[in-house]
Description:
Layout: E1 5-8, H1 18-33, E2 37-40, H2 52-65, H3 88-100, E3 104-107, H4 111-123, H5 139-147, E4 153-156, E5 163-168, E6 172-177, E7 185-187, H6 195-205, E8 210-214, H7 221-231, E9 237-241, H8 261-267, H9 271-279, H10 294-299, H11 315-328, H12 331-341, H13 345-356, H14 365-369, H15 391-406, H16 413-426, H17 431-443, H18 451-473, H19 479-491
Parallel strand pairs: 1-2, 8-9
Antiparallel strand pairs: 3-4, 4-7, 5-6
Family: Belongs to the class-I aminoacyl-tRNA synthetase family. Glutamate--tRNA ligase type 1 subfamily.
GO cellular component, one term: cytosol
Catalytic activity: tRNA(Glu) + L-glutamate + ATP = L-glutamyl-tRNA(Glu) + AMP + diphosphate
Amino acid sequence: MTTVRTRIAPSPTGDPHVGTAYIALFNLCFARQHGGQFILRIEDTDQVRSTRESEQQIYDALRWLGIEWDEGPDVGGPHGPYRQSERGAIYKQYSDELVAKGHAFPCFCSAERLDAVRAEQMASKETPRYDGHCMHIAPEEAQRRVAAGESHVVRMKVPSEGVCVVKDMLRGEVEIGWDRIDMQVLMKADGLPTYFLANVVDDHLMGITHVLRGEEWLPSAPKLLKLYEYFGWEAPVNCYMPLLRNPDKSKLSKRKNPTSITFYQRMGFLPQAMLNYLGRMGWSMPDEREKFTLDEMIAHFDITRVSLGGPIFDLEKLSWLNGQWLRELPVERFAEEVQKWAFHPDYLMKIAPHVQGRVETFSQIAPLAAFFFSGGLNLDASLFEHKKLSPEQVRQAMQLVLWKLEALRQWSKDGITAVIQAVAESMGLKLRDLMPLMFPAITGQASSVSVLDAMEILGPDLTRFRLRQAIELLGGVSKKENKEWEKLLAAIA
């Protein structure tokens, strides 16, 4: 009997996402329920955005939740390497095989030509897709151009007619017309694979038997299945999990809900409660109880109990569930968890130097430093009134700072200062002109300890969350402003 093997394959390009944890949890439970193995693979072929810091954050966040894997980049295993960036020669071998068999072809089209073709198709109300221009180049001619060093990608061939039947554990058979499927790029011009080739090759070579992934990948399933067919491999069993939703049913996004796992850790949620809540996303225990442990979920796990209605990720419901967990802790354990969260020596030692010179009695510490131990703040809009900036410019400045901080991967006082400085200069201002906006947003006060130091100590999750809160308090950002300000963002060094 084949051993069940599942996997999670996150990209280390940002904060560890709750959606990643949700999919990881269900893959883990499915594997454990069948006595199988759960693998973690890092999809880091996006060399511009992938970082080792982000990769480490993924490990730390999943382990904080209690999710452990049997094989992966940090624990090893018999099917390594487990980072796609270290598997380049493997992908090239299989890409060359597809070209040799006539299932794929080198494409030399420029970005300008592709844009023009797509624009023409859209103007004619057609589905934008590659028009097969380079598919008709004679193989010998194509190989001569490749050997001469001409820039190219490798594309797969797909049928233009008929339907692909996708078997899904939750939906049964789903029919997708081939006229909706593009000739996917498999190898980029830089010699690195796209998701589609790397995914199929890795899942096959790592012996993955079942793939539980987000339903946003269902429309592109025919490409993956066709690649398995081209290689002559058996495809794994697929399960397309419903996407997490905001309370307004839109796809979960950081614009409306904090999506970083580390945000919830920083806010003081228990990992057991967080994992419990993710387990309730579209799934329920046979007895419908709300509170359960990971071991209990594994013991009663049945993938057919997953509901296709988009599960709502509701911060209020999560907070309620966390409260249930907190109240059931023995009081000694409760005190231990509080200390572990923020009242431990490491965190207090970061704060102490900034507080010591500003107090005359210990009893003054709490009012001065309370924001270091808070999540959201009760903000006063009047604190954001500015001598030089209009209300719109205040929101613009804060939004630009937020966007730049969201892209900041090395979180340090110098990095934060450089971001605010760059935004100020782009608006014809000085650093000191924007600092009066940072104080109330981050500390809830017009003045306090050094706000730049405070931002470094609070960390990226709480800093960004509080900036979002302040922007919403001041009226938020309209779609039109969002579009205009994103153009300004691109010009900031």
